[in-house]
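For reproducibility, we list the full input for the FE2/S2 (inorganic) cluster complex.
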Amino acid sequence: MCDCETGANRPGGMTRRQFIKSVIAAGVVSFSGSLFAGPAGAGPKATSGGVERLLTLNVNGQQRRVDVMPNETLAQTLRGKLGLTGLKIGCDRAECGACTVLIDDVPQYSCSLLTHSVRGRKILTVEGLARADGTLHPLQRGALEEQAFQCGYCAPGFLLATLGYLKTNPAPTRQELAHGISGNLCRCQDYDKILTGLMRGAAYMREG
Ligand code: FES
Ligand code: FES
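The corresponding predicted structure, in tokenized form, follows.
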């Protein structure tokens, strides 16, 4: 018998809906390993040479001070040092989009950006989408209502890629949005449902 609703096999006994909501809202589910091949890279890689330097980063509207190695990627800093594990690492080489964040409202692969290069820029991660009172961002609401994601691992990247795209085209056709977020991959490959959820979210954003 399916245990989808009882949550018997979910972390903390969550139902599937609660499980996916937690991922869409803040990517808070901890996976036992990366769903993608390649390094899962939660923390900084071993380095040879160089010393950490104290930087101040603008993350989700807050000034965060953190010690950063010269060759440290933004994904490593955000996940490993600032605890923003909503950001996922899939390929760690600019191919899948799981690590997408907004830098000054533009989607970027954080696995391929040096943290030093984003000093003074505005960084947004999935944790910064919902309001402080827990109200979901319209894109999160649309994705959740349409049950757009299966495992949800790619969800934070898709949400931020979509938000960035909508800043350039607030009322896209389905085809335009598909093209706009084509830099993001889903291992579960239910792109149709993802697009339906994100289109609904885009409509919610236009409603204000
Ligand atoms: S982890 Fe795949 S693009 Fe960054
Ligand atoms: S990777 Fe599983 S829903 Fe996209």
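Strands lie at 53-59, 62-68, 100-103, 106-109, 122-124. Confidence is low (pLDDT under 50) at residues 1-9, 30-46. Both points were considered when choosing residues for closer inspection.
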